[in-house]
Amino acid sequence: MAHALAGKPVQEQDIIDVQTIVDAYFDNVPDMTNPTQLVSFGTSGHRGTSVDGTFTDLHVAAITQAICDGRKQFGATGPIFVGQDTHALSQPALVTVLEVLAGNGVTAMVDCDMAFVPTPSVSRAIIRYNEEHDDKADGIIITPSHNPPDNGGIKYNTIIGGPADTVVTKWIEMRANEYLTAYCESEDFKRISIDNIEPSAQVPYDYKGLYVEELGDVINMEAIKTAGPKVLVDTLGGSGASYWNAIKERYGLDLTIIHDDYDPTFSFMTYDHDGKVRMDCSSTYVMASVINRIGDFDLAVGNDPDYDRYGIVVSSGLISANTFLTLAARYLFTTRGWKHKGVGKTVVCTTMIDKWAADAETPVFEVPVGFKYFSQLLFDGAIGIGGEESAGASFLKKDGTVWTTDKDGMIMALLSMEIMAVMGKSALKMADEFVEEFGNPSFGRIDAPCKKEQKQILKQMSAELITATTVDGDPITNIRTTSLYNDMPIDGVRVETDKGWFVARPSGTEDLYKIYGESYKGDLGLVALLTAGEEIVNAALNGTIETE
Description:
Layout: H1 18-27, E1 46-49, H2 57-70, E2 80-84, H3 90-103, E3 108-111, H4 119-132, E4 138-142, E5 151-157, H5 166-183, E6 202-205, H6 207-214, H7 221-227, E7 231-234, H8 241-251, E8 255-258, H9 288-291, E9 299-303, E10 310-314, E11 317-318, H10 321-335, E12 342-346, H11 352-360, E13 364-367, H12 372-380, E14 383-387, E15 393-395, H13 409-423, H14 432-438, E16 442-449, H15 452-459, E17 470-471, E18 474-482, E19 489-497, E20 500-506, E21 512-519, H16 522-541
Parallel strand pairs: 2-3, 2-4, 3-6, 7-8, 7-9, 12-13, 12-14
Antiparallel strand pairs: 1-5, 4-5, 9-10, 10-11, 14-15, 16-21, 17-18, 18-19, 19-20, 20-21
């Protein structure tokens, strides 16, 4: 059930005090005896808050120092591209990163206007540079993604432009924690004060200009301009706000752009489903103000603070990421003429993709949760599009070559405009033929409490621990703990029936686990499936035996 404040404007008492969290960023020293204050990379980087000592100057310095130590063995010998979003902690963290890079003699590619740089723009810059140079570049992106305004985050992108894989992030994590421990024993990092950095250590780079100019390689911008859909763009105060203004001007599009001023408090937001301030553009509650205005527009789009996610609103409401990923794949493979390519999805994405792909004779690459698993596939052109249920996706250029290997919320939003321009205004609604051919599944997720030791058991669970034989009365047809592509651990378990499936995975930051589910028995069937899934997983975690 949604919180009473969900979808309502943020109240004054919940607006963050920027100075307080910035002061805490510089003042707080992590307690190395407290596991929650160690450097810990989740699916795509380290995240935390300054007031509780989980994201501080020392965390960022240690992570950056570790990256400097390891980047040559990761293949990077050239400059490092640096991007940051509009969270309040991203700006002080940028200073930390630049100081440590300079102290290590690593050239930083900084925005030529010292403006914000979205995640996809960094990925595109790395790929662009490495196509033209022998000395390979990598990247650092300072962002906690869509998380609340008081959060901070930092992640590392490799020479192919996408998020580092688990081997690399574990190395960085271990090295960074060694540095933190050493610092607490009175050793310091290699860093140069921001005021004393030599100009040659930072190279101005036109991230926005190059990205916007190249959009015609991946999107049919002429079709959008000719059709002229009236589009509302909610920038959500994110790092790509100026990009949308540049896109409007460069391509002559009919865009009404809102929330494009820098406000690190995000005071203009509406509350998410749980009453928290969260800039998740795939949430109906976060996009409430846009949904309320859709009657004046043909289409509305939005992006999260680092622009790796998208939200798309039509007259019937917010399109689910699962639905749009399926529609996008069908449209792209119909219009681009790609040959010998597949579609990428995570283990918690809709089976509608599998059903469409089987009908279209297109291979499916199912991977664990995390966009890093798509990076090499996109780089090699093995998949035309790869996407997550959480509204992160990217796809290839029109000629079938790599665009970005990290999530790109801007091209997904622009693709929705292209589909409408080419196929008509009703093309983005849930297609009737999809429902007729493949069914109309209900998708959802719930969180269940879980002790730390149980989380570890779930992460390494074997299928044999699940002893149930049915889910909501439907016989279990398959239980697995690895992905279909490359047989990689999914850090949890997937249970399937002919009428649906659920996946249980431990949270990386909280004492709970997440249960994703999809049911072809309607909304009530989804509730029953998720409830039964929780009972089945709890039984396995508690070591009891399910009997049917």
